[in-house]
Design brief:
Helices cover 73% and strands 3% of the residues. The longest helix is centred in the first third of the chain and has 34 residues. By secondary structure, it is mostly helical. About 1% of the residues have low confidence. α10 packs across α13, α11 packs parallel to α13 and α17 runs antiparallel to α18.
């Protein structure tokens, strides 16, 4: 199998949709995206011999612009393979979830979804910075049109703000990556450029000065922090989520935000370790501010979709803490958080969309008592809210706990889990967990329980049943099953990513502990003092 199947098949499907009839476009999109998902499952099974190692699988090398040294190199490690699986799972579910919601310009809609899938897989599979950047930027185009054409009343403003924020930030990221590639070429006196990610990461981490690493860190984070998003460059996200169609919100929360955290994992951590160690406390402070600020904003929201959008800003702050804890338990927790957030928050956006199709409102003050009118919907809503708040036994608990444990244990003197954060960062950020449980459970109390409330001028949907249809249940069941499975068996994933995580973190113990005296040195100092 080849990763090119996962990238090219959606493009073929998009082309078929454009030349075919509108009436069959959704079936083409569903068929193609399902085939892509099945292929990714087969590839994951074939990947079995190197799960848990740091090796890359399904590597391929295609020459492109030889004079410039640009090649199309693909390959995935364990972490990237997991995110590819998440992408190929959510895409057909988004297609299926759009069957009753999209009624105009249908062909373009499903074509954009498939093009978006190609771009997302390209980000995770790219082994050179040019292909990565092209794929990274290509994700903006389909999402821009999905919001601008199929979004809510403020869709024009939301789509433009989304595009400007993310495009501008990624230009700085490109500048940082090109500087590393140029320095690599000049240092080795090569005639042509090299854009191989692994070669550039190894070079940057060992040959660049601390000052150069600091500037590169700033450039890389200018794009990745916007994409995650990290406070204070988060303001585009709530508006984009609120105005996007349901599938757009699911893809945005489930995969596109993970492009930022994956960028930190793929580029920032291995390329500029000295700068990361120096600036990790500052990054952690911004993450904690985002956790608490967004959680407090959630308290005053009446729009359930905007509430879940702000909760993503808060939740992904924990993911950032895990990334910069600089120890295995924290980084494994962060990667697991990427997957878990995609499953549980993606499901919440599906549920909100299903409710909106029936009531044409997301106002928590106008809708209530759905446990009586929509019991199946209410069951899934309670389930995924509990997964999001970290109920033990469900997926959210494991990743959140690992991120906090990695942050808590991260000290320079800790030989097992060295790092530069510590208990104070974990303690303050844990307040966000309490706030999340409160605002999400209050939301459930208003929407699901209590007196039945329906919006004014409510009219039953002409085709959808009052409660969930079989199609809608079919979307939610696999997500619920995965949330439960990961909550019970998280070691299946953490063991699989262990080798990749250890390789990324390999430079950090020496850097973190370089100023920490050894036991022998401490004894010598003590003897000299006593003498």
């Amino acid at each position: 199998m080849s990763l090119w199947y996962l990238m090219l098949l959606p493009l073929v499907g998009a082309a078929a949709i454009f030349v075919g009839k509108s009436s069959v476009s959704k079936w083409i999109a569903l068929g193609v995206s399902t085939v892509v998902f099945v292929i990714s499952i087969v590839m994951a099974i074939q990947f079995a011999p190197i799960w848990g190692t740091s090796l890359d699988g399904f590597t391929s090398h295609v020459p492109w612009l030889n004079k410039l040294g640009v090649t199309l190199d693909l390959g995935v490690d364990s972490v990237a393979m997991m995110l590819v699986l998440l992408t190929t799972l959510l895409t057909p579910l988004c297609v299926l979830g759009s069957f009753s919601a999209i009624t105009f310009r249908v062909k373009e809609y499903y074509a954009w979804l498939l093009i978006l899938e190609t771009a997302m897989v390209g980000v995770f599979a790219a082994q050179d910075i040019i292909l990565f950047y092209v794929s990274f930027e290509l994700t903006l185009v389909p999402m821009f049109f999905l919001i601008a054409i199929y979004g809510g009343k403020n869709r024009a403003h939301a789509s433009i703000k989304f595009f400007i924020y993310t495009f501008t930030g990624s230009l700085f990221t490109l500048a940082g990556l090109l500087y590393v590639a140029w320095t690599y070429k000049e240092t080795h006196l090569y005639d042509t450029w090299s854009f191989a990610i692994h070669d550039l990461a190894k070079f940057a981490s060992t040959d660049l000065s601390a000052t150069e690493q600091g500037w590169i860190l700033l450039a890389l984070l200018s794009g990745f922090a916007v994409k995650i998003p990290v406070f204070p460059v988060h303001t585009w996200l709530p508006l984009a989520h609120t105005e996007a169609p349901t599938a757009g919100s699911v893809i945005l929360a489930g995969v596109l935000l993970k492009l930022g955290t994956f960028g930190v994992y793929r580029f920032v951590l291995p390329m500029v370790p000295e700068a990361v160690v120096a600036y990790a406390p500052m990054i952690a402070v911004l993450a904690i501010i985002g956790i608490l600020y967004a959680a407090l904003i959630c308290w005053v929201q009446d729009d359930i979709k905007k509430l879940v959008a702000y909760s993503s800003v808060s939740h992904l702050g924990f993911c950032v803490l895990g990334l910069i804890a600089l120890n295995p338990i924290g980084l494994e927790g962060a990667v697991l958080y990427m997957i878990n957030h995609g499953l549980s928050t993606g499901a919440l956006f599906f549920l909100i969309g299903m409710m909106y199709e029936r009531y044409h409102s997301r106002d928590m003050n106008a809708i209530g008592g759905l446990a009586k009118t929509m019991p199946v919907w209410s069951f899934f809503m309670v389930f995924f809210v509990l997964a999001s708040v970290g109920l033990p036994g469900l997926n959210g608990f494991v990743s959140e706990f690992m991120c906090l444990l990695g942050t808590f244990s991260a000290s320079a003197s800790n030989a097992t889990w060295p790092g530069v954060l510590g208990p104070e960062y974990a303690a303050i950020s844990a307040i966000g967990m309490v706030l999340a449980a409160m605002y999400l459970l209050i939301m459930v109390g208003k929407i699901v329980f209590g007196k039945v409330r329906i919006p004014e001028n409510y009219e039953p949907h002409p085709t959808l049943p009052t409660d969930l249809s079989k199609r809608e249940i079919g979307i939610l069941v696999p997500l619920a099953a995965l949330c439960l499975w990961i909550g019970v068996q998280p070691t299946v994933l953490t063991d699989a990513m262990q080798g990749s995580v250890e390789e990324v973190l390999s430079p950090y113990p020496a850097i973190v502990q370089q100023d920490v005296p050894t036991e022998t040195q401490r004894i010598e100092v003590k003897d000299a003092t006593d003498g």
